[in-house]
Specification:
Blueprint (H helix, E strand, L loop, with lengths): L1 H40 L1 H4 L3 E4 L2 E5 L56 H18 L26 E2 L1 H6 L1 H8 L3 H10 L1 E2 L10 E3 H16 L1
Antiparallel strand pairs: 1-2, 3-5, 4-5
Helix pairs in contact: 5-6
């Protein structure tokens, strides 16, 4: 009997010591080590890939934002603020019409097949809107000019980037709305176009938040 109690106590003691050691190693030392390495090697990513403008954080570079006008009375769906470059159609994004506020609501794909009627209607309506919004004096958008990312959301609905083709399609509208030359706006797009990661992964892309921050600076410079 005494031997059984002794063995039980010994096993409990060993278990408690193992729990203590593992708690310290995996619950304290390992998280501190990983956090320290992340802060030293990848501080931007570790801190949320924050983008700053005018001395404050205006959003993350890895999560898309919408640029809409304030809702009017009785309006349920906000209209895009067409003085800004627009990102991909979004599922569940908050608004950031002046680049200073951001509210993430949810993310997720539509989970609808390519022949789903609702999806086809959404894409058709989005394409018409893109053509209408970006056709300005002296420049008409043709249906064949509209790239896929202009009318479809990403799998998460949070894609922060657009294709160079979609950014270029918006150049004339942006120039007209902000009193800038088309050439200067196109230069801005080219300067903010990133190539494939490591030269072969993914596609060329333009980060909409960073492009709009640069646009805001260009407009302010032109008005000065």
């Amino acid at each position: 009997m005494n031997n059984s109690v002794t063995n039980t106590a010994r096993l409990l003691g060993a278990g408690l010591r193992a729990l203590l050691v593992l708690t310290v190693v995996t619950g304290i030392l390992y998280p501190l080590a990983v956090t320290g390495i992340a802060q030293a090697v990848f501080p931007g990513q570790a801190n949320g890939s924050e983008v700053r403008a005018d001395g404050r954080v205006v959003g993350p570079s890895l999560i898309g934002q919408s640029y809409n006008l304030p809702l009017k009375k009785g309006q349920e769906t906000p209209e895009p603020d067409l003085k800004w470059f627009q990102g991909r159609p979004q599922n569940g994004l908050g608004t950031n019409g002046v680049n200073t506020q951001y509210k993430l609501i949810l993310s997720g794909a539509t989970n609808r097949s390519g022949d789903n009627k609702d999806l086809i209607d959404w894409v058709t309506a989005a394409k018409k809107a893109v053509i209408k919004d970006n056709s300005v004096g002296g420049y008409t958008v043709k249906p064949s000019d509209v790239p896929a990312d202009a009318v479809t959301s990403s799998g998460s609905g949070l894609d922060p980037d657009i294709s160079p083709q979609y950014a270029d399609l918006q150049v004339h509208r942006i120039a007209q709305r902000n009193g800038l030359s088309v050439a200067r706006v196109r230069e801005l797009v080219d300067a903010h176009t990133d190539g494939r990661t490591l030269g072969f992964i993914g596609e060329p892309r333009v980060n909409v938040l960073q492009l709009n921050i640069a646009l805001k600076g260009l407009v302010a410079k032109s008005a000065a």
